[in-house]
Amino acid sequence: MSRTTLSSREFNQDVSKAKRDSRNGPVFITDRGRASHVLLTIEEYQKLTGNKRSIVDLLAMPDAEAVEFNPPKLDKELFRPADLS
């Protein structure tokens, strides 16, 4: 796995090259000499995140209505008077 570093200017001038380079490893994009972003293929990203589904993915499920959600009721008051003494 190789590591490529591009300046923001280089990235903007040749996005296709950055995408090609990301197939061989992460592409670090710098801003004023400091790494600011990383470009990965979706496969590499999924390996890093462990293919975990986000809450957005779960809520977008077509069968979301079948998911049971029963939050506990609060027995406490939701507010109390402010003590201004």
Automatic annotation (TrEMBL):
<comment type="function">
    <text>Antitoxin component of a type II toxin-antitoxin (TA) system.</text>
</comment>
<feature type="compositionally biased region" description="Polar residues">
    <location>
        <begin position="1"/>
        <end position="15"/>
    </location>
</feature>
<dbReference type="Pfam" id="PF02604">
    <property type="entry name" value="PhdYeFM_antitox"/>
</dbReference>
<dbReference type="InterPro" id="IPR036165">
    <property type="entry name" value="YefM-like_sf"/>
</dbReference>
<comment type="similarity">
    <text>Belongs to the phD/YefM antitoxin family.</text>
</comment>
<feature type="region of interest" description="Disordered">
    <location>
        <begin position="1"/>
        <end position="27"/>
    </location>
</feature>
<dbReference type="InterPro" id="IPR006442">
    <property type="entry name" value="Antitoxin_Phd/YefM"/>
</dbReference>
<protein>
    <recommendedName>
        <fullName>Antitoxin</fullName>
    </recommendedName>
</protein>
